[in-house]
Amino acid sequence: MRHGRTNYNDLGLCNDDPNQNIHLTATGIAQAQSAAVALRNVNFERILVSPLPRTQQTAKIINQFHNAPIEIHPDLADIRSGFEGKSVAEYFTAIATDPLHLRVNGGESLLDHKLRVMRFIDWLTKQQDETLLIIAHEETMRVFVAHFEGGIADAQLRDIQIGNCEYRHFVWNC
User: Fold this and answer.
1) Which residues pair with 132 in a beta bridge?
2) Model pTM score
3) CATH classification number, 7-159, choose in 2.40.30.10, 1.10.150.450, 3.40.50.1240, 1.10.3630.10
4) Which of 17, 66, 99, 146 has a Cα-to-Cα distance from 153 of 20 to 30 A?
5) Which residue in 80, 82, 42 sits closest to 62, CA to CA?
């Protein structure tokens, strides 16, 4: 699941620093509450979130029906863009010539981010839980979709759109 809408989503700004005051808006809280109701009958054994507060805030709302342990996993963090607090449009302009490989302002490339998320997926597939909820970010969700749904080239990752509090259900055999 992607986290609920935030103040930085509204402003079109980048954030990968967990110490910044990025929080769910009223819309984001409503999205999370709606998702909580939709998922209320799913028996989550754990909820895994990124270190960024917006995923944790979303998890607490979802967890009202579950009382599952919420665990932070650093590999779920949003892409380190190198554009903290700057416009997403400015970031996209900076990587436009090679969006998969460029690292700007000490940030990660899209492929660096993908490798980090794939490391998490490898770890995840070795877990014994039957049902987990993972709350992360759009860039992270793109890697999940490409991996579990298949047939998506790296150059197409940016074409995958994941709305706030949109969730996907993936099943794999361990």
Assistant:
1) 46
2) 0.94
3) 3.40.50.1240
4) 17
5) 42
